[in-house]
Design goal:
It is a single chain. The chain is an alpha/beta fold. The protein has helices at about 45-55, 65-75, 95-100, 115-120, 140-145, 160-170, 195-200, 230-235, 260-270, 285-295, 305-320, 350-360, 375-385; strands at about 5, 20-25, 40-45, 60, 80-85, 105-110, 130, 150-155, 175-180, 190-195, 210-215, 275-280, 300-305, 325, 340-345, 365-370, 390-395, 400-405, 405-410, 415-420. The strands form four sheets. It has a seven-stranded mixed beta sheet with strand order 14-13-12-15-16-20-17, sandwiched between helices. A six-stranded parallel beta sheet has the order 1-6-2-5-3-4, sandwiched between helices. Strands 7-8-11-9-10 form a five-stranded mixed beta sheet, with helices on both faces. Strand 15 (about 340-345), helix 12 (about 350-360) and strand 16 (about 365-370) form a beta-alpha-beta unit. It is elongated, with a radius of gyration of 26 Å.
Length: about 425
């Protein structure tokens, strides 16, 4: 894509090129951000916008389906063109494609559909996470909905609010309020609130915007800085995100917790971040899951021990982050979960090899396996390699400096072996 030559929004008269493309936003109530210039030779837009706003006697270019044909048609007009676009055309809008046209562009944004949806329910959204599943891989949208306390999602007829709600239910994310704003600005507009179970059973009219709200968490960024992941919210927090935290920061049982150095190395290999979905299999107290969520990832933590899952939920609540929790044994309990970007496997017991097989068949790019015995390393690496993954391993040994008389000695912790799989 080439960058468009943007004109000042106030450009008019002699300041405008005879070939200017004027992009005009249409807000959720159907109002134009500015009138259509009187000198345009054609108006492009969706059917609804053209029917409502196109002047009589002016050629129209419908925007539907084949955008290549739309760009060609606009380029062929021998004079100025107006393009009507929903909301802000620079926000998941047509401006990206219009940048391919070698013409000056004048942009007049309107309020977006997300702004309209939050306005309809009277909720502030400077701390919201906004993501699109419209014509895109839905995994980042789902991961963001799992992680965030206040999330807006642009959907399509494949990744519908019902599909996202069902995935959240399967992932054990806890209660969420779902608000679906259907056909904003149309006469049949509807803005309705549901719980996840209700939303998963319904169909919704297009276009729609889905809001996923975790009302069990404090949505105030200053009160819960670790939960704030949007750039706007982060700019208003005073605490930087930390990871590799000491074990004392987490509720755990009898030392059964991933130690900070191992946790930091595992997270570095997994690459958690906004829009990435992680599985933590055999999560224990959930320290790795919680720190991955604090870094912005959507995390599903699984364990066969219900008491450990309760500790994981408590640790997530203490750090102000959201995680999904699933009670069950891998690999069977993983069947309904959405495919992850990365997987952390904590041991795996006698089912380690089938767990690796399943992870390798469904994971996008990274697998990390934490092992206590050296005998399990080679079989784990062979399993990854047989599935077409590149496998490496490292031994992590950490010793604490502790007082001894007038000096100090090194007190070694139990070493941990990390097997890392990377998809080629």
């Amino acid at each position: 894509m080439t960058c468009p030559t943007a004109l000042p929004a106030s450009a008019s008269g002699d300041d405008r090129s005879p070939f200017t493309v004027t992009v005009i936003g249409v807000d959720p109530s159907g109002h134009l951000a500015r009138p259509i210039p009187a000198d345009v030779l054609a108006v492009a837009g969706g059917k609804r916008h053209l029917e409502a706003h196109s002047p009589a006697g002016i050629a129209t270019i419908p925007i539907a389906g084949n955008l290549d044909a739309v760009i060609e048609a606009i380029s062929a007009v021998p004079g100025p063109v107006a393009v009507l676009a929903s909301g802000d055309p620079g926000w998941f809008g047509i401006l990206r494609r219009l940048g391919e046209i070698d013409r000056p562009i004048e942009i007049h944004p309107a309020a977006s559909s997300v702004a309209g949806a939050f306005a309809r329910i009277g909720l502030t959204w400077e701390d919201a996470l906004v993501v699109s599943a419209h014509g895109r891989d839905p995994r980042p949208a789902f991961a963001t909905a799992l992680h965030g306390a206040k999330v807006a999602i642009l959907t399509d007829d494949r990744t519908t609010p019902a599909v996202i709600a069902q995935a959240l239910l399967d992932s054990g994310c806890g209660p969420r309020r779902v608000v679906v704003a259907e056909r904003l600005g149309h006469r049949d507009e509807a803005v309705t609130s549901y719980d996840l179970t209700e939303a998963a059973k319904r169909s919704f009219a297009d276009p729609n915007v889905m809001l996923v709200l975790d009302e069990t968490r404090n949505m105030n960024a200053e009160a819960a800085p670790s939960a704030a992941a949007s750039p706007t919210a982060l700019a208003h927090t005073r605490a930087a995100t930390q990871w590799g935290r000491p074990v004392e920061d987490f509720e755990h049982r009898d030392g059964q917790i991933t130690k900070p150095a191992v946790r930091a190395a595992a997270l570095a290999a997994l690459g958690p971040g906004p829009g990435r979905l992680l599985w933590d299999i055999g999560c224990g107290s959930g320290s790795a899951a919680v720190e991955a969520a604090a870094l912005g990832a959507g995390v599903i933590a699984l364990d066969r021990d219900a008491a450990q899952l309760e500790r994981a939920r408590a640790n997530a609540a203490a750090f102000g982050v959201g995680i999904g929790t699933v009670h069950g044994a891998a690999p069977d309990a993983l069947a309904k979960l959405p495919d992850p970007d990365a997987v952390l496997i904590g041991g795996g017991g006698p089912d380690l090899e089938p767990i690796i097989d399943l992870a390798a068949s469904r994971c996008r790019d990274r697998i990390v396996i934490a092992l206590a015995t050296i005998e399990r390393v080679a079989p784990a690496m062979r399993r990854l390699e047989a599935a077409g993954w590149r496998a490496t391993a490292q031994l992590i040994e950490v010793s604490d400096l502790v007082p001894l008389g007038d000096g100090h000695r090194l007190a070694p912790r139990n070493p941990v072996l990390l097997v890392q799989g990377e998809h080629p």
